[in-house]
UniProtKB/TrEMBL annotation:
GO MF: endopeptidase activity
GO terms (BP aspect): CAAX-box protein maturation
UniProt entry keywords in alphabetical sequence: Membrane, Transmembrane, Transmembrane helix
Superkingdom: Bacteria
Matches recorded under InterPro entries: Rce1/LyrA-like_dom (IPR003675)
Domain CAAX prenyl protease 2/Lysostaphin resistance protein A-like: 148-239
Protein name: Membrane protein
Membrane-crossing segments per the record: 20-39, 66-88, 109-131, 151-173, 180-198, 204-222, 229-248
Amino acid sequence: MTVELTRPVSRRTLGVETMLVLGLSLGQSAVYAAVSIIAKLTAEGGLSRQTAALNTSASARPYLDLTYQLLGIVFALLPVLLAVHLLARDPGDPVRTLGLDFGRPGSDLARGAGLAALIGLPGLALFWAAAQLGINATLVPAALPDLWWTVPVLILAAFQNSILEEVIVVGYLMTRLRQLQWRVGAIIATSALLRASYHLYQGFGAFLGNAVMGVVFSLFYLRTRRVMPLIVAHALLDIVAFLGYALLPREWFTWL
């Protein structure tokens, strides 16, 4: 007797799978961000008097803190491996399908740098305007102690953020929504709003800025079918933000 080991995947199965992947990753972050913004809005002094800190210390003991930082980076990337594994059920190599391979290093680096410049410079202006309007919390991009491993960990954290967000929110999500026969406009809007929602803990300026970034990145992916330049762009933006805040005089960032 022959046992059937595979069967066509239904739209319902793809929909449930997508919700589970998001629930284990950035969808979960979006829920926590919504709770966080409510807490900040209802706290004494309002939103502008609150702080949103990234890359915070996990222990007063340096080597234990380093261990926690590295474990956090590794485990945060597991949803990416899960998403790629699930996409492997589709025809073709999922790494190539997502444009996650290293086949075009020069082009990916150049396009990524261009995207970073396109997003980064207007983004700084938006953050300044949001701070003046009091619609953002005070942002602290790096709150780690000044130790020998601080810079390498911040760089790793930047790549962790970029890989997680671009593979899940752009590559995986947009692939699945296309298979679910969503309209292109709805796919772009969903990806962009998800990206904006898990940054909401930083304030409404960050929400708007990341929504715009999400639209730009989604349109780029639909045109090129490559997520690697998006990872490069996102990593560059985060590296500049994290290292700049950690290494430059603190008074330069009072406008955040």
